[in-house]
Design goal:
With 660 residues, the chain is α/β, with parallel strands linked by helices. Helices cover 49% and strands 14% of the residues.
Length: 660
């Protein structure tokens, strides 16, 4: 059973219109009337008709002109002309203008019915064959167009327009699944009068079609009657297939054209939907490859950044920022421990995370794979930073956790953990770059931790050597400490920043480390040194520099150690530098070193008086010493005794090598 045809009768004679209406309604056709050509064109803009019966002679737009306009604008609507004078010339002109046939007044009911039936029969056959130019457009769109050279949305927009046009629909839509084979659909594009169907029907029909194999056909003449009061009478929908599952659904509806979609239409649209599926699959693969390439490039850049630091605090900061730029998480944490090492425990967590969340499900989850004591250290101690996040979280749900066990990284044990409590269900597929990124992070932290541990051990060894140097001479065993006290007080008087004072403290404590290689017979000789013996003594700044140089943490002050015996006038050693060419910290050490040497007992002499030492500094300001630094220490000594300077220094606990 086909849909009832709509017929428009156009004549300025009401009697003719009434006669035609009565005859046609007896055949169950829907009939509307128009008193002239202009009125007919207005009606055509709102409603589609299978057939128009029109008088030729009308005052405004005659029947021939109306037939021409209908042919151009409504090619699926047939026109039968009514005339009072039939002729061969009129027939030719009518056909030329696009009319299907004409009948001559006065006509009988049988003649009218036969002409209308013949027109509708021809029209029905014509509508069953899709126009080849439009088929070619759709074929080109789904087969020949390179989707990679346009956006996905542009491709879908062009496709839905072509589907509507080719299958003579009033509206069309395309839905895509959130993931291949999934039932969650998103409307991606549409064309035409989509309001003829409400959203509920659009979506329910799409989901039915998504689960079908050959598509879904609804309306009169199909096994699926269409719901009433929808504004349309025929609909077809086919899934967009792919090897991984259906990618979505294409739908076309028809209301203005009174002919239902056929199974042939459905089958044909299925072919084009399959081609579209191939295009979308190719596009998806290319997009995935581009995304993977971009992610790997980011991972490589972040890995290089992770490895560019050798102190743990910088590495952890770099990792935290890097992970946040690529991965959505609520907690990032690392625990690292090893034999004879202080455990490293660090967490970066959302500022709004409830404390009991970490102590319940998350703790239980970690204890399934990690030592419970390590988990306790990780959660209950160590460094914890926080960050703000607007992403919705469900703290009552079990966390989604990724853990990398660090047991394979050298002699360490521990883990790196990423955790989230998402409000919405997330895909179970973990992006491939996340494990790579975490492994790079683990390697960077391990390397930094090893380096810092090695440096700490080396620093402790160097500090012990420095103490051993002072211990070689019972008269100077506190010399390095005293120089550190004096240089710190000078730096404070000159208002240097605390970090710089810390560097000067380290330089002072280690400035004579090179004397470890000087024979005790020379260091402890009671009499005057020979020229050869003094030349040996003069090597200790360079020897100290070479001892300290392998430690990067010493890099900021080793030049002070190397040049602390240079003179402002250029007569010092080992390089004979002068003035501003001598490193500033070395010039400060030179003043403090000489002051303590003068005011301390030596094996070859007793200590000199404070007044003598002050006068020597005043006398040698500008020659041996930097005038600004000489002025600073003299200012300190006016208000504070050497004993007070040293006591204050000791009370601050600064008499050991330290690094911030």
């Amino acid at each position: 059973m086909t849909a009832k045809a709509r017929i428009l009768v156009v004549d300025d004679d009401e009697r003719v219109r009434t006669f035609c209406r009565e005859v046609l309604e007896l055949q169950n056709f829907f009939v509307e009337e128009a008193e002239n050509g202009a009125k007919a064109l207005e009606i055509l803009k709102k409603t589609s008709f299978s057939l128009i019966l029109s008088d030729i002679m009308m005052p405004d737009i005659d029947g021939l002109d109306l037939a021409s306009k209908v042919r151009d604008e409504y090619p699926d609507t047939f026109v039968i002309l009514i005339t009072g004078h039939g002729s061969i010339d009129l027939a030719k002109d009518a056909i030329k203008r696009g009319a299907f046939d004409f009948i001559t007044k006065p006509f009988k009911m049988v003649e009218l019915n036969q002409t209308v039936d013949r027109a509708l029969e021809v029209r029905g056959k014509q509508l069953s064959v899709l126009p080849s130019p439009e088929l070619k457009d759709l074929y080109d769109l789904t087969v020949n167009i390179n989707i990679s050279k346009q956006s996905l949305q542009s491709y879908l927009d062009n496709l839905v327009i072509s589907l509507k046009k080719t299958f003579r629909g009033d509206s069309a839509r395309i839905y895509l699944a959130e993931e291949p084979g999934g039932l969650s659909l998103l409307r991606k594009t549409g064309s035409g009068n989509e309001e003829l169907l409400n959203e509920e029907v659009w979506e329910s029909t799409s989901k039915v079609a998504l689960r079908s194999e050959g598509g879904y056909l609804a309306g009169e003449g199909s096994e699926h009657p269409f719901p009433e009061n929808t504004g349309i009478f025929s609909l077809m929908a086919v899934p967009i297939p792919s090897p991984e599952g259906n990618l979505g659904v294409c739908l076309v509806t028809r209301s203005h054209y009174p002919a239902s979609f056929t199974s042939r239409d459905l089958k044909l649209m299925g072919l084009f939907s399959a081609q579209a599926g191939n295009q979308l699959t190719t596009y998806g693969m290319a997009s995935n490859l581009r995304e993977q390439a971009d992610n790997l490039e980011k991972v490589n850049m972040l890995a290089a950044e992770f490895s560019s630091f050798l102190d743990t605090s910088h590495v952890l900061s770099s990792i935290s920022l890097g992970l946040k730029s690529m991965v959505a998480f609520d907690l990032f944490g690392i625990f690292l421990s090893g034999k004879d090492m202080i455990p490293l425990s660090y967490m970066l967590v959302r500022s709004d995370i409830p404390e009991d969340v970490l102590g319940t499900d998350f703790r239980t989850f970690l204890e399934k794979t990690q030592d419970s004591n390590d988990v306790k250290l990780f959660l209950d101690s160590g460094i914890r930073d926080s960050f703000a996040s607007a992403r919705a979280a469900d703290w009552q749900s079990p966390p989604v956790v990724d853990i990398l066990d660090l047991g394979e990284f050298g002699s360490f044990r521990g883990m790196i953990a990423l955790a989230s409590w998402p409000k919405e269900k997330i895909s179970s597929r973990v992006p491939s770059y996340i494990p790579i990124l975490i492994r790079h992070a683990a390697a960077a932290v391990s390397n930094a931790y090893l380096f810092e541990t090695s440096e700490r051990n080396y620093i402790q060894a160097i500090s012990a050597l420095a103490s051993a140097v002072d211990a070689k001479d019972p008269y100077t065993h506190d010399h390095s400490r005293n120089v550190a006290a004096y240089v710190s007080s000078i730096a404070a008087r000159m208002r240097l920043p605390s970090r710089e004072i810390s560097l000067l403290n380290n330089a002072a404590l280690l400035h004579d480390i090179g004397k470890i290689g000087i024979p005790e017979a020379i260091l402890n000789k009671e009499g005057s040194l020979t020229r050869e013996e003094y030349s040996v003594i003069m090597t200790h700044p360079e020897v100290g520099y070479n001892i300290l140089r392998p430690v990067t943490a010493f890099a900021s002050f080793i030049d002070a150690v190397r040049y602390h015996h240079e003179r402002f006038d250029g007569k010092g050693y080992p390089a004979g530098l002068s003035g501003e060419d001598i490193p500033f910290h070395a010039r400060m050490l030179a003043v403090a070193d000489c002051f303590d040497a003068m005011t301390s007992d030596r094996i070859y002499r007793d200590s000199l008086s404070i007044d003598f030492a002050i006068s020597e500094i005043e006398k040698n300001s500008g020659t041996q010493f930097d005038p600004r630094i000489s002025k600073a220490i003299l200012s300190v000594l006016k208000t504070t005794t050497p004993e007070e300077i040293i006591d204050q220094y000791i009370s601050m606990g600064s008499n050991q090598v330290m690094f911030s």
